[in-house]
């Protein structure tokens, strides 16, 4: 069954979500959260980002629905809102592997 073309508003929304994922630091935060929730302190240790930079990236990820947060007393815990984002990463990694293989073959 042919897929219906996307309207301009939907295309813009998809592009905005891809822009969020275009930042390596944000991908690193998502990767760190892959195995479960973490506090900001744990994320700083895991990603190597400073607190101000991490907070900025977490806010972007939260506002676009990639992460969730919950407060427990003085701690804020972040977790993935939807792990299906890694399906996109897997697709892209597969494409990159094929692209590199083609380049290596062409270089011979």
Terminal residue distance: 41 Å
User: Do you know the CATH topology of the domain at 8-81?
Assistant: Arc Repressor Mutant, subunit A
* Main beta-sheet annotation: 3 strands, antiparallel
In percent, how much strand structure appears in the residues? 5-15%
Which CATH class of the domain at 8-81 is shown? Mainly Alpha
> How are the strands of the biggest sheet laid out side by side?
1-3-2
User: Total helix count?
Assistant: 5
Mean pLDDT comes to 92
Just name the CATH architecture of the domain at 8-81: Orthogonal Bundle
Number of separate strands: 3
Structural class: alpha+beta
- What is the H-and-E element order? HHEHHEEH
Low-pLDDT segments, ≥5 res: none
The global form is globular
The CATH H-level homologous superfamily of the domain at 8-81: Winged helix-like DNA-binding domain superfamily/Winged helix DNA-binding domain
The value of Rg in angstroms is 17 Å
- Please estimate the helix content: 55-70%
């Amino acid at each position: 069954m042919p897929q219906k073309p996307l309207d301009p508003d939907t295309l813009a929304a998809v592009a905005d979500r891809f822009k969020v994922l275009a930042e390596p630091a944000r991908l690193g935060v998502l990767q760190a959260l892959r195995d479960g929730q973490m506090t900001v302190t744990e994320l700083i240790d895991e990603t190597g980002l400073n607190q101000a930079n991490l907070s900025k990236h977490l806010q972007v990820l939260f506002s676009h629905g990639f992460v969730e947060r919950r407060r427990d007393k003085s701690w804020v815990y972040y977790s993935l809102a939807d792990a299906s984002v890694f399906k996109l990463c897997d697709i892209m990694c597969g494409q990159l592997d094929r692209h590199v293989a083609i380049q290596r073959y062409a270089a011979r």
